[in-house]
Amino acid sequence: MIPSAPIALPETAFALTLVLLLLTPLAIAGLALINTGLGRSRSAAQSLLGSLVMVAATTLAFALVGAAITGTFAEAGHTFPLVGRSWNWLGSSPLFLAGFRSQPAQAQLEVLFEFLAVALAALIPWGAGADRLRLSAGFAIAVILAAIVFPLVAHWAWAGGWLAQLGRNFSLGSGFLDPAGAGVIHVLGGLSALAVAWIAGPRRGKFPQGEIATAMPGHNAVYILFGCLLALAGWMAFNLAGDLVWLHAPLAALPETAINTLLSASGALLATFTVTRVRFGKPDASLCANGWLAGLVASSACAGLVAPMPAMVVGIVAGVITPLLVEVLELAVAIDDPSGAIAVHAAGGLWGLIAAGIFSPVPGQAVAQLVGVATLLGLVLPLVYLLFRVLNRVVRFRVAPDGERIGLDLDELGGGAYPEFVLHRDDSYR
User: Fold this and answer.
1) How many of the other CB atoms lie within 10 Å of CB of 110?
2) Residue 87 phi/psi, 5° resolution?
3) Separation CA 283–CA 362 (nearest Å)
4) Which of 17, 38, 119, 219 keeps 20 to 30 A from 242, CA to CA?
5) pLDDT at 428
């Protein structure tokens, strides 16, 4: 599917897109449950409350500041000339959503789409900081993402910014394409997760001195797997909404996008199932969940752009890469990422963006996708790391050692998620 120019949205398409966006919070709920299940039982309530806090924080920050920076296709945006081209780098909407009601229907759906997108993106680093990241730190991270970083990337890719203009300015296909946020949401979230893991450091006892990494399995496989099913429903709705909002797809093209989403997730799950069974003798439930999510993440870039068989291949590759990368990050690089966010969202999203170019029949599309990937890695990652490093000096990311020892539920909330059960001391603390 090749995106068309923005047009007046028919009432049927507007109503359908609105319904799809109202189903998207299922993806947010699914990811929140997965993050909670992959953490420790003594931090479960803090994890789930933190997800709500981050959704609220991103909503307020994006409404007050972020939406103005992102802008919409209905506005020209701020530009500067370079090498004979006009580069649109920043939105020009008013602050505080002023005049939102008078915006065209298409622009209103764009903004609603972005509200949900930034909320989903903020949950990704929260999962990577599980069992050691303070609620106040999560709130501050969400505000930074929603007010500064996400709006910039969303404007460049979605709201007529310079990445979207690569086709017009340099004849690179249709410009950088990311209809459901593999880059804007998931790579950004995954790179933020990497920055959080670097700055906060590993959980106590994860890497004992002179020993290999200690296994710290998630406390509730039921949360994890049920979260995967919730995420599927929300992801399918969001991918379809992305096609309608950003690609201006005809309604007849939507069934293929839904099928491609399911094919990518299914291929990824079976690939991860096979890899873990071969490596460990039995399939690993948590890694299979990571593979399923990686397939969904990859589909965010290409479900509306490729045919069904390439979509399945995209998922299979994501499912093979994910468990291997999780192992490499933990054992070879000593990065403690309880939710697997870096492998699932950063790597899965990057692969989806590249695959959208590989399987595109449009000349130059692969190059446009690579330019977007290079921007995320070469510009967005350093920006996020710098902002988070400064933020950590103002709002300390990590809980005190005693708080980590007794669990974040008791330390930050004064009560546990499972008061009727005895939660034993973790023997890995030293």
Assistant:
1) 24
2) -105, 115
3) 39
4) 38
5) 45
CA distance 205 to 288: 25
Please, is 14 exposed, middle or buried when counting C-beta atoms within 10 Å of its C-beta (0-12, 13-18, 19+)? middle
- Residue 296 token pair: 């969904």
In a 10 Å sphere around its CB, with 0-12 CB exposed, 13-18 middle and 19+ buried, how is residue 295 labelled?
buried
Residue 164 is assigned to a structural domain of this protein: yes
- Three-state DSSP string of 16-77: HHHHHHHHCHHHHHHHHHHHHHHCCHHHHHHHHHHHHHHHHHHHHHHHHHHHHHHCCCCCCC
Residue 302 to residue 295: CA distance in whole angstroms:
11
Residues of the chain falling short of pLDDT 50: 427-430
Give the model's pLDDT for residue 429: 44
Could you tell me which residues come within 8 angstroms of residue 85 by beta carbon, excluding any fewer than 6 positions away?
A: 169, 170
Structure tokens at 234: 């929300």
Beta bridge partners of 129: none
- Count of the separate structural domains present in the chain: 1
Residue type, 99: G
Residue 62 resides in a domain: yes
Cα 80 vs. chain centroid, distance in angstroms? 30
Domain contains 268: yes
The rounded distance, in Å, linking the Cα atoms of 275 and 183 is 26
The predicted structure's pLDDT at residue 100: 92
Looking at residue 84, its pLDDT comes to 77
Give the type of residue at 164: A
Angle at 334 between CA 332 and CA 338, to 5 degrees: 115
Distance CA 154, CA 150 (A): 6
pLDDT of residue 24: 97
Q: What residues does 78 pair with on adjacent strands? A: 90
Look at residue 423 in the predicted model and tell me its pLDDT: 58
In a domain, 425, yes or no: no
Tell me how far apart the alpha carbons of residues 420 and 314 are, in angstroms, rounded to a whole number.
44
167 Cα distance to chain centroid: 25
Tell me the CATH number at 332.
Answer: 1.10.3430.10
How far the first Cα of the chain sits from its last, in Å, is 56
In our burial notation (b when 16+ CB lie closer than 10 A, e otherwise), range 403-412 reads: bbbebbbbbb
What is the structure's pLDDT at 382? 98
- Please give the Cα distance from 378 to 385 (Å, whole number): 12
What does the alpha-carbon distance between residue 39 and residue 174 come to, in Å, rounded to a whole number?
41
Three state DSSP letters for 92-145: CCCHHHCCHHHCCHHHHHHHHHHHHHHHHHHHHHHHHCCCCECHHHHHHHHHHH
Rounded-to-integer distance, Cα 232 and Cα 230, Å: 5
